[in-house]
Fold these 2 entries.
Entry 1:
Amino acid sequence: MKCRRCENKASVHMRQHKLALCKEHYLEWIPEQTERFIKKYEMFTRHERILVAVSGGKDSLSLWDILVRLGYQVDGLYLGLGIDGGIGYSDESRRLTEKFANANNLKLHIVDIEKEYGQPIPVLSQISHRGYGKPCAVCGLAKRHEMNRIARDLGYDVLATGHNLDDEAAVLFGNTLSWSGDYLLRQGPVLAGAQGLARKVKPLCRFYEREMTAYAIARDIEYIYEECPFADGSQSIFYKESLNLLETARPGVKLTFYLNFLEAKKSGNLFVDRNAGQALLHSCPKCGQPTSAPDLCSFCRMIGKASTARTPDLQL
Ligand code: Q46
Ligand code: ZN
Ligand code: ZN
């Protein structure tokens, strides 16, 4: 298949967008789309200072790369969590993050949780008895706290994270399964800032995970392939796998799930009591049954149409 923008052979095929591009045009398309999402959701402007949370993974390093290429004022923040997991996870992710920052001449802030608070995340988790054996609850809490502290102390306007569509759809799936109304209402590409809280944005939230992998590879970004060892068996991975099954059968379903949710939220249609609209019903002038249609009810209109149409020859 050919690239949509030139005569070359396409190297990235995006079935869900009905789009195929060569490497060169793919490397243009991702930043263009990111810029479109930044504007559409009013994430930030070129006058604001952005702090991007980088973990050494493909999403956050790619996000940093894209924002710099788009000309935004963006620095990085790496949080040392002190997670080893037999693979030296934190050491390796820090090494790759520093390598990326140095190679591109970018400013990187490094905060080591153990140095700052005396213990690494897994030990803090044990001591505090939160999270039932997994350090993720403490880790999430510490990450949110530290990102916000650094953004506030160093005067950044916005905090950007590399969450992609697969991450967001999995969170949405989980929140929908449990009908967590508060979480659903807070989920989105932008979380407005409040007193003492930086605005949070997710510029990659409409890209599939595999699109970000393709970008990082095409751009030659060296990133850590391993997930955090504690991610194994997590609920979010289970939700991602479930959504991937749906996506295989119906390409695009993940994106529609997420975008239609954003639409419903924007139009105020999320959690609206439909029964409240009963007052708008009136009696159908033909059958007398209640209807919301402007004139005849749908049934009477259907029968009306059927009686005027030519009767088809039924073969029984
Ligand atoms: S929360 Fe849990 Fe992650 Fe922290 S301990 Fe690892 S898996 S890094 S996204
Ligand atoms: Zn091309
Ligand atoms: Zn506090």
Entry 2:
Amino acid sequence: MKTYRIALVPGDGIGKEVISAGREVLQALAGTANTFQFEFTHFDWGGDYYRRHGAMMPPDGLDALRGMDAILFGSAGDPEIPDHVTLWGLRLKICQGLDQYANVRPTRILPGIDAPLKRCKPEDLNWVIVRENTEGEYSGAGGRVHQGHPIEVATDMSVMTRAGVERIQRYAFRLAQSRPRKLLTVITKSNAQRHAMVMWDEIAAEVAKDFPDVTWDKELVDAATARMVNRPSSLDTIVATNLHADILSDLAAALAGSLGIAPTGNINPERVYPSMFEPIHGSAFDIMGKGLANPVGTFWSVVMLLEHLGEIHAAQRVMCAIEHVTANPELHTRDLGGEATTAQVTQAVCAEIRSAGKPGQAPSLA
Ligand code: IPM
Ligand code: MG
């Protein structure tokens, strides 16, 4: 029997609620599997840790994660701590420190979800956004001088390296190649950003030569927003810089029905370091502690985690359970216009997993 070591980093806000739900689902799954089990290690990093220790995670925190098979992450953010402190002190520290350079964001309209585009059928929207995750606009390079004086200067530098751009383009082409449509759109802004983005375009054209079976095109990031709304079926795999993909992926999640559903994987493709999986919704202080958070974004992230571990059959079982549950409007949380609680959705997904294969056992409110 294989044992997967999973790090749980709930972080802040609703992260705590959804990660404990994610753990329940993994446990339900392990209970029905006889080839693998999970060993969980819980890390209490985040805003509360910061109040006690003056840092979001310990200085040697990355070492504790290195030996794990995967990380399940909730969110970083606290109403009392500036956002850039929580983000850089935890999530970005992990992504950069463990070289998780490919941020992968699948988007689909799941069964039962009332998506806002009136002319878009579920089969018209099936995207994977690949976000560069370690450099670009989030490189962290920059600074402030003469603070508070009229001559104050502040810079955030977007840094693109040939190595960084090439590896993310290559990852995206490979992913596009593995999907049925073999279709990739490279997002750019090389009309205005005339140095790094021009290099980005050039590298895409070079990498494309190694993938003759992938059809690819280029789209300016502003035009891409309109295309996502007007011609969703013209897109499949999408690759973009850190900030461009950040923005496009929120639009993607909203077009698919709710940010509460959207998952992501921060992947180190070479597997030198563990990869990290998380819902994209953030800490949502307004609903934290109320049991209203939608755990589906975490469950879908669990599916990505299982795929990454190579447990494809188990991943499919969890995805199937999620889709059975979203298909029932009684099991929709508030973000989807329903009244179900985090616990009810979690119980329903766990019940689906346990009864998989037994026909006629539709999930219902517990
Ligand atoms: C995301 C989030 C983060 C980001 C926030 C929380 C800083 O929006 O994962 O997309 O911009 O990277
Ligand atoms: Mg975002």
